[in-house]
Amino acid sequence: MTPILDVDLLPGEAEWQRAYVLLGFVIHGHHHGYHKNIIPLARSEPCLKICDHSGVEPVLG
């Protein structure tokens, strides 16, 4: 099982924003590279936490 990233350790807003961009890129690549509509928990859970922290809606896929 792939470990889930612990985003609670991000020190500042710049890191939260960077994590949002990077995870979005990884999720986009997974979705379009594997042509699957299911995003693995190891990628989706941290993305949802980041969205909640930042007050933005998740865009997965």
TrEMBL record:
<dbReference type="GO" id="GO:0019441">
    <property type="term" value="P:L-tryptophan catabolic process to kynurenine"/>
</dbReference>
<comment type="similarity">
    <text>Belongs to the indoleamine 2,3-dioxygenase family.</text>
</comment>
<dbReference type="InterPro" id="IPR000898">
    <property type="entry name" value="Indolamine_dOase"/>
</dbReference>
<protein>
    <submittedName>
        <fullName>Uncharacterized protein</fullName>
    </submittedName>
</protein>
<keyword id="KW-0479">Metal-binding</keyword>
<dbReference type="InterPro" id="IPR037217">
    <property type="entry name" value="Trp/Indoleamine_2_3_dOase-like"/>
</dbReference>
<keyword id="KW-0408">Iron</keyword>
<dbReference type="GO" id="GO:0020037">
    <property type="term" value="F:heme binding"/>
</dbReference>
<dbReference type="Pfam" id="PF01231">
    <property type="entry name" value="IDO"/>
</dbReference>
<dbReference type="GO" id="GO:0016702">
    <property type="term" value="F:oxidoreductase activity, acting on single donors with incorporation of molecular oxygen, incorporation of two atoms of oxygen"/>
</dbReference>
<dbReference type="GO" id="GO:0046872">
    <property type="term" value="F:metal ion binding"/>
</dbReference>
